[in-house]
Design brief:
about 375 residues, alpha+beta, 6 helices, about 15% helix
Length: about 375
Amino acid sequence: MKFICTTKSLSQTLALATRAVPSRPSHQILTNILVEADKSGQVTLTAFDLAIGIRATFQAEVSQSGSLALPAKILGDIASRLPSDSEVSLENLGDNQILLKCNKSKFKLTWIDPFDYPQLPQTENQESITLTANILTRGLRGTLFAASTDETKQVLQGVNFAITEQEELYFAATDGHRLSVVEVALDGLKPNNLTIPARALWELLNILSRVEPEDLVKIYITKDLVNFQVSGYLLTTRVIGGEYPKYNSLVPKEFATTAVVQRADLLASINRVAVLADQKAHHIVKFTFSDGELAIAAENSEFGNGLELLSAQFVGPPITLGFNYKYLVDGLKSFTSTDVLIKMNSPTSPVIFEPLAGANTWYLTMPIQLRE
């Protein structure tokens, strides 16, 4: 194998692919990255920890095709330190040695036979759906932050993809304290329901940031795994078993009180007042809605209190609620609208936040009961 490429292509592609290299591998070969070059001028890098796999390609001047496995961390560390505006060459010298050259730098690395490197699961002949990168990005950015990190709640550690009979695709994530849902209407989708690990989807979001918004993402689905393929990138992951909670039952049918508030002002006010939100009291900020106004307050038993007043288009009886401010910030940051609609019933029932424009999404969080 022998090829020449830009240092930027090599380092950036390695930085992406090596995210699937395990820190505690079950097999030593998994600490390597599979490098494949063919005469068409394409170099492919593959990493696989047996749960998540990433394959990424870049263009190079290939004079000799071949494949081998190289130590991922060492290769990545070297590539990231090379000048970004230079060329680098990799040449198989035989005897399990490869020569990497860039300007006056030379490195000899030991490679191993790629024969034992595990193959990524193949699903190309399976049923698939196609989404644009833009739609998939919107769904993930609107939900991933709400997925659970609690290892005892495995089914909640991912994002649920549900396709209904009405050809509506729902992205949903919850950690048991808050729930975020993004709805997309598409044609030609068959009903399906699967939950994909958040860890894999964060990597997918990283891949999607490297492609054009209108690029098509092919999603191949089987009972146990799913492959995402787009513009020279492939991500494979196992799905999470178990039934995802029926979250629609959590949403009240009617609301006694509604308010419309400017999102940026609301987010800024929460962040300022939250400086005094007491960590010992669940980081609570208090919302009090009354005619034309929202008062946001926080108290700290040691340092004092803070208060901000915002204009609000308010309908219904006055209400006071307590929230973990971190949950509010996460939800509001996922919106892109100028204004946000807040729908409430009581200090102990679910509260819904919705953007007034843009994506069809909503965010539910449970209030925290305030002490009298």
